[in-house]
Amino acid sequence: MAYSMNQSASNDDYEKIHQAFENIKQKYRNDLGEKDVRYIKKIRRNSRIFEVIGRSLIHILPGPFALIGVPFLFLHRNLEAIEIGHNVLHGQYDSFDEIPQFHAKNFRWKAPVDETAWRQEHNAVHHVHTNVYEKDPDLNHGFLRVNSQVPHVKLHYFQVPIYLFLFYPFMLYNFNAQNLGVVDKFRKKYFPEGNKGYAVLDKELRLSKAEGMKRHKRAVRRVWAKEYVFFPLLALLTGFGAIKVFLANLLADVLNSYWIALTIQATHFTEPLQPEDAIKNKGKWYISQLDSSVNFKGNRWQSILWGHLNYQVEHHLFPDIPAHRYPDMALEVQQVCKEYNLPYKCNPSWRVAIKKFVGAMWTYSFKNPTVPVQAAFLDKEVGSAK
Amino acid sequence: MLNKFLSVLHPWLIKTLGRDRLEYLASNTINEVTSQLDPFIWTYSCKAKVIDIRQETADTKTFVLLPNQHFSTPIAGQHIELQINTSAETSASRCYTLSEITQDTVSITVKLNPEGEVSPWLHHQAEVGTVFDISLPRGKFVHRDQEKLLFICAGSGITPAFSMMGNVVKKSNDPQIGLFYRTPTPENTIFSQQLSKLESDNKDVRIELSYSRLPVDIVTPSCMDQLIAAFPDIKQQHVYLCGPELFRNDVIQYLESIDFNMDNLDIEQFTLPDLTLQPGRVLDEDVSVTLRSQNISFVIPANDCDKTLLEAAEQQGIVMEHGCRSGMCGSCKTNLVSGEVSGNKIGRSIYPCTAYPASNQIVLE
Known about the structure:
Chain A is mainly α and 386 residues long.
């Protein structure tokens, strides 16, 4: 059930809560500067170094030894995808004139995802209507069913293996389908109740089939051209094994997708559904963001590899403050939560978070799940949304 | 050597790939190395390179420009704003109508104004290979498929007329075009050869030149008498008017006096960018807003200035990217190029959903 303040809470209380979070935001906005520019440049530099090491090892080392290069290539792909890509596309570095390459509208992802469609779906929909039934596309990521309100179809019985073994290894390649509206059409065609229970793309954002396809192809081809054509070909031309390079790059690609899938899925959909009108009310939006997100613990180095998405609570409260600030902000957010008795949720580890979300996927793959007592986190009430 | 290679490569790239594909290629391969190697292609700004310079008259030159992939195809009659670095720190910008438009290039025709800032620089410093920043094509002074056209222009006001005439002649088999061109002397007439060729090649193109600075002993009828004598059917035509303000006023006054239907009149509302930008905003003044990425300009009426930029834009039917409408999600975040806003902002980054106009001219990225 969605969190609600006690009955006696007045508009005044909401106003105070709103102000408390605004103060944190303003404090960090005022502090934006040189430090953030240095940080993002440093991450980019490291990503390049990992790329050079990774690709060289994969290129030179014979046969299975090329696997030694894969972790380095994975680090490069991972940093580029989330700590740089995801955060930059939120406009976190837009206010720095000296780094136009890290402005949301200039940035090009080294991932097979169309940036414009992503910004619309992710920044403007998911971050505004987080965990809102039929509004938040990330609650379903395709056809996923993680609450009992979504109409059950036979496909849902198999959602755990389908997602773990088919979708997650290619997670990044699935985003375009969602952002460009292909998934909407699939559900409309094959699900008895069509898109009931799912968020669909806003009419205004829908592209013509040709334009959508063009964007999808362009986003994917730039990655394939580099990973599966250019570098294997380079190996071939210089007398090394092309197939080896192809497979090593594929492995890094799959690892990257899997890592990202496990990171992003672990932070929302074990949490309660939210009312639709939260965004229209001062203070209530912050509370709904707190209630719909859950952190998991990790040190600063690990957090970089998760793109600081383990600080999902802070990310959802302040989506366009540079993410490397979240660990500091977390302390202040916790303080506010304590003061006003608000929920601040944190799983003790990534492992626990993964276990919980796979548990939720399993539970709701059945039509009428019996919610086990220990899984109180699944306690979502039908009445909390329309 | 490298420059020579690039001077062949750039036109070839734009011609064979087209701007759209080149943009895809360049934006996905831009990095510290490539942007050093060739800052014309691997850049985030819209730039143009001079590829040819032609002397039109003693003090007028035409510059043929090759814009990079960020440019979009202009419509005949539109203009661009050109920005040059006059010294290491200072820059100046001016608007120039495109006098000729081809698939890959555009031309501007510039009269030397010795007291000016930009035209002397163009005339004396610019050479083939020079690169500067330009804006996307702008302006609504464009041909909208009217059948009978009459262009009335003076001085360098010929440029939009010339480009529109070229365009109409190319598109239509039987163009009905008139041109009334007020120019100082035959020697100072811009495009005189091209114009007479245009007239002799097309039977329905009529061109009337009117000279303002002939020696005093040659008696000429007044400008307006000459206009009506040359184009007695002026009331049946759609008039495009472009020239200095005094000339424009004379023509408008004359057209009013003969009961010309003003719906059939297009005037080039072409003003130089307001470089002396006032801080703050006069309350009863309209605000003009330009969205660079969409290449749209619109005006917020003075009494709508208490609305947010997002709301004001929507009022004009313009779609801006947005999400929560309350300054939380950052979807609408964009950067201020010039002007001032109040409300939700971080330095030059502003949130249109929760920011308000605070100067009478605002340019957003």
